[in-house]
Design a protein that fits this description.
Elements lengths: L4 H12 L5 H12 L7 E7 L5 E6 L4 H12 L5 H10 L5 E2 H4 L4 H11 L6 E8 L6 E9 L8 H20 L7 E12 L5 E4 L1 H11 L20 H14 L7 E6 L2 E10 L9 E11 H9 L6 H11 L4 H8 L3 H15 L4 H9 L7
Antiparallel strand pairs: 1-2, 1-5, 3-4, 4-5, 6-7, 6-10, 8-9, 9-10
């Protein structure tokens, strides 16, 4: 864990101030949290107005992990699943699985049969509350392996502060459409000409699950195997087959789909059988489209700026007016303008457009 409260408010608070939609903000924060605290994976469960776990995001690329969590959330029987989800849903402070292990047989059984096989030998469950209404917004789960150290008191306190940042980000979340560009997360899918999934890499399967449903709850039974769930997929296959036959050098057709997890782009390729005489299959590159402002967030840390300048610069590059930046950061208008002036002098830029160009440049030294 990095030292100092200021560092915590530095990167995680930046994310919370971007106004990202809830299901884009949470995955980004879980990823950034790895730079703050050691873990093998992080998970977040949303809670509805009644406190029931209603959706989940887990960083693991293995779709089986998600399915196990979904089963536990959807169970209505009096078993290890419902006892554990009820226990998790009612926590009022950070609690580790090792700390609670042995106090309840059902929770202990869930720990041994579900969490440990995933490699989650110790998990810290951190409740997230709305500051005014005290309504439960969700549960942050930070997972550690068998060789990792146990969570100490200071780390649990640290995660409570992280929970407050998550709360702020969820409250600030916007549902407005955002401009996107190609993100890092991408995977491979191979389907037959009927659209039935034949092969996939783990990341491809994870992205396929995210692209096919905004909610992982009891309504999601098993993996997605038929890509016709995506509107226009049959057109993509038809175009791909006809293009290969009549225009072999034409660009590969693409399909875009969006939901609460963001925008996903599928690009089709025709895969020919070079050994036997089987019918060609369809290869699909599935790629998550990263919000433009999130790309700026990841790039701005490469500039030689102070933490405060970085935060102001990020909001400035994202297009926020000076007064809006001042309101978000509780600064005076004069202070914001002074920060922008210092940023401009420090990295030798003259405008907002210059800053954006510098951030998106793959070789900033050549700018």
């Amino acid at each position: 864990m990095k030292n100092g409260k200021s560092h915590l408010s530095y990167r995680l608070h930046q994310l919370a101030h971007l106004g990202l939609p809830s299901q884009i903000f949470i995955p980004a924060l879980l990823q950034e949290l790895h730079h703050e605290m050691p873990s093998i994976s992080n998970t977040f469960c949303w809670q509805d107005d009644n406190g029931k776990l209603c959706n989940i995001y887990d960083e693991m690329s293995n779709n089986d992990v998600i399915q196990k969590f979904i089963l536990s959330m959807a169970s209505t029987k009096s078993d290890k699943y419902t006892h554990t989800t009820n226990w998790v849903s009612q926590l009022d402070k950070p609690t580790t699985s090792l700390e609670y292990f042995g106090k309840c047989g059902f929770v202990g059984d869930f720990y041994k049969t579900i969490l440990m096989p995933m490699g989650y030998f110790n998990t810290c469950f951190v409740p997230v509350f709305h500051p005014q209404t005290n309504r439960r917004l969700g549960i942050l789960m930070v997972h550690r392996s068998k060789t990792d150290k146990d969570f100490n008191h200071h780390e649990c306190q640290y995660l409570e502060r992280v929970a407050s940042i998550i709360t702020y980000g969820l409250i600030q979340a916007s549902n407005e459409q955002t401009y996107t560009i190609d993100g890092w997360d991408q995977g491979l899918l191979i389907v037959d000409q009927k659209g039935v999934l034949q092969h996939s890499c783990e990341m491809g399967e994870k992205l396929l699950s995210l692209a096919s449903s905004s909610f992982f709850d009891g309504s999601l039974a098993g993996s997605v195997n038929d890509l016709h769930v995506f509107k226009g997929f049959h057109v993509l296959v038809k175009d791909l087959l006809q293009t290969n036959k009549h225009k072999p050098h034409a660009k590969n057709p693409t399909l875009s789909t969006s939901n609460a997890w963001g925008e996903f782009k599928l690009r089709g390729f025709l895969i020919k059988d070079k050994v036997g005489k089987r019918a060609p299959r369809i290869g699909l590159n599935i790629r998550w489209q990263e919000p433009f402002v999130l790309k700026l967030f990841h790039r701005i840390k490469t500039l030689d700026l102070t933490p405060r300048q970085e935060t102001v610069g990020l909001l400035y590059a994202a297009g926020d007016p000076y007064q809006e930046i001042a309101d978000k950061l509780h600064l005076s208008l004069y202070t914001v303008k002074e920060h922008v002036r210092n940023i401009s002098n420090r990295i030798d830029i003259r405008s907002r457009a210059d800053l954006i160009q510098l951030l998106l440049c793959d070789n900033p030294s050549a700018f």
